[in-house]
Amino acid sequence: MEVGRLRSNGDMDTSIHAHFSVLVDPRMDRTRRHKLIDILVIALSAVICGAEHFTEMEAFGKAKEAWFRTFLELPNGIPSHDTFRRVLSLLDPAQFQACFLNWVRDVARLKLGEVIAIDGKRLNGSLDAWSGKAAQIISAWATDAGLVIGQKHTPDGSNEIAVVPELLKVLALKGCIVTVDAANCQTKNAQIIIERGGDYVFALKENHPALYADVQKAFACEAQTDFRHVRHSTFETVEQGHGRIETRRYVLIDDPTYIAYLNADGRWCKLGSLCRVERERRIGDKVERSTSYYITSLTGSAEQLAHAIRSHWEVENGLHWRLDIAFREDQSRVRLGYAAENLAVIRHIALNLLKSDRTKKLGVKSKRLLAGWDEHYLLHLVASNLKL
């Protein structure tokens, strides 16, 4: 069933319909006073401008009704907050996320070697006191582009480890480097990434005890001779600021003999290198040290691997932190039906629109304020980027 078409407005076309036409309206025919496409566009516009819950979506829509009527049909005016709540709680999140993915594929142009960080985020505000459950979203973050390029929610009864492979299967990974944390260091994920034309960098910990122990022994053994008898690459960074000095030393071993021994059964698809990262942080007289290990399909350059490892944590600052601070995601108490998952999709679309806009040299917060003040700028964000 179609979600409805947008009215023509000058140079604006209706390609948003191509991305969201697969959405099935969850309402019964007799309860459809408002078009689904109108509801979604108003909700997205409201979130871009700072709305956090359904009553604010209604208030924003009423304040901007004359403006919305220039490109939406609005056969029965602006939907009520109850309509926003009901529709977003019933809308199939898997379908909505698939539409989001199709849109990203159309508008995002990732460079060769783009690092894609896969990570999960618990929506703490959606916690149900009775069941103890909260919605969780697994996101794919293109670290250099600063865009969410895919997401999936974790259904009840499932977990992040089961959902990550499903997300990887729908991403365009050719020429990209995918990073995951130790929990998702899984042979299945490595195979999917390689089959889809990408490379992987996986954090390695004790959840793979035999491999972890063997990798530790390999580095300990070769370090005794300063790695002179094994093919390897090194890289070091030193950063100083805020009263501390941080040093990171990377050693990559891509010796075919080691790789063949550690991956004798071929479980890790196209395993190419092992990596050790030694971190040292000095704050005055206090010194903290830690060591981490990684496995990867990359070979040859410890510097390239260092970039991928450091970039992985951009998902925390570039995505999760911004959603919590700028969009107050963790304060959202929405939990009815699928509303929390679907609002997460809307926030990701809004963030992508704001981050990808190059017409204003402003931060996300300032762009949101400007969009609320300036209808021409809001129309540019919504119409130009979504090609309404």
Describe this structure in words.
It is built from 15 helices and nine strands. By secondary structure, it is an alpha+beta fold. It folds into two domains: 16-91 and 357-386, no CATH class; 104-320, no CATH class. The longest helix has 18 residues, at 339-356. The protein is elongated and about 75 Å long. The two termini are 19 Å apart. Residues 1-15 have low confidence and may be disordered.
Provide keyphrases for this structure.
388 residues; alpha+beta; 9-stranded mixed sheet; 15 helices; 42% helix; elongated; disordered N terminus
Mean pLDDT over the full residue set:
86
Share in helix: 40-55%
Q: Please give the largest β-sheet.
A: 9 strands, mixed
Note the overall shape: elongated
- How many β strands by DSSP? 9
Order of helices and strands: HHHHHHEEEHEHEHEEHEEHHHHH
Radius of gyration: 24 Å
Strand numbers in spatial order across the main sheet: 3-2-1-4-5-9-8-7-6
Distance between the termini: 19 Å
- What structural category characterises the helix and strand content? alpha+beta
Tell me the number of helical segments per DSSP (H or I, 4 or more residues long). 15
Approximately how much beta-strand content do the residues carry? 15-25%
The total domain count is: 2
Which residues form runs of ≥5 with pLDDT under 50? 1-15
Give the arrangement of secondary structure elements.
Blueprint: H1 16-20, H2 36-48, H3 54-63, H4 65-68, H5 81-90, H6 93-107, E1 115-122, E2 136-142, E3 147-153, H7 160-170, E4 177-180, H8 187-195, E5 199-204, H9 209-223, E6 232-241, E7 244-253, H10 256-262, E8 273-283, E9 286-296, H11 302-312, H12 314-325, H13 339-356, H14 364-373, H15 375-386
Parallel strand pairs: 1-4, 4-5
Antiparallel strand pairs: 1-2, 2-3, 5-9, 6-7, 7-8, 8-9
Helix pairs in contact: 2-3, 2-13, 3-5, 5-13, 6-13, 7-8, 14-15
